[in-house]
Amino acid sequence: MKTISNGTFFNIRGKDLYVERHGPKDGYPVLYLHGGPGMGCYEFCYHQANPLSDKVRLIAIDQRGCCRSEMIQEDEFFSLHDIVLDCEALRKELGIDKWTLLGHSFGGFIALKYTTMFPDAVSRILFECPAFDFGLSAKSLLHKTSQIAEKEDMKRLVKECLGLAESDESTRELMMGFIELRPKLGEKGREIHEHNFNHPTDYSFYTEAEWEKFTNRSDVHNQRLMDGGLMFDSLLDNLKNIRQPALLINGQYDPVTCAEQLERFCKDVRGGEVITLQHSGHFPHAEEPEEFTNVVEEFLVREEM
């Protein structure tokens, strides 16, 4: 392995995986799984690495082919399962018996998949605004896009969003449709996912050229996941198999974890708990950082007792 300024590259299953580690070695081991797909762990670590590091042994990764991790090559096989297998290989590499998973958005999907495949490796699960079913999430995102468009008197966009959201299109088509329609809102598009803008992320640690390189890598990662199709399979039925203590942290204004998914979590996860932060959208860890840190630490301490 080789070390850089704030992270380490581990060769995991033949690829260099970017890994950040924060906090004491005897802290609660927590693996952070980022969303996007392809977002990387930079933004989460910017807001949470230092606050959590008093009690948490935080391990945060850029998933295979994302951002600072090694790029996926054109002739290289890659699927959603590779992300899960990478995490399990990293756990063994770090000598961790069991760890808590903290999955944000698409990372929640990965966390649930990992728990299904390797239940004995997981002590607890934290979901932050997860997407367990991308079809339901896409419809909710389209409805929120239409609400913002209506406020902006963008009648055609309202019609396009509602028409697609109320259609019988596949999960893939719903997601692709949302991705195509969102840019029509311009700067207002931020309001789909964000509610509280008081805690911006400083991305100046890397140059614009470096961020462009990271984004290009993530684009390959994203496209390959979409081409593979596994991310379009609903994992709602997997919720009933969770046996670990589980907490879902949601933002009051988050459109991704829609009502149907929250209802299934509450119904199917034995002892599962939901905490809603009142001034957040899709990024409670950044929009209400102190409250988020407190919720995570209280959950870990409570479940350890």
UniProtKB/TrEMBL annotation:
Domain AB hydrolase-1, first and last residues per copy: 28-289
Keyword Hydrolase tagged: yes
Keyword set, alphabetical order: Hydrolase
Pfam family, one: Abhydrolase_1
Keyword tRNA processing: no
Molecular function in Gene Ontology: hydrolase activity
InterPro entries the UniProt entry points to: AB_hydrolase_1, AB_hydrolase_fold, AB_hydrolase_sf, Peptidase_S33
Family to which this protein belongs: Belongs to the peptidase S33 family.
Record-given protein name: Alpha/beta hydrolase
Protein's organism: Virgibacillus siamensis
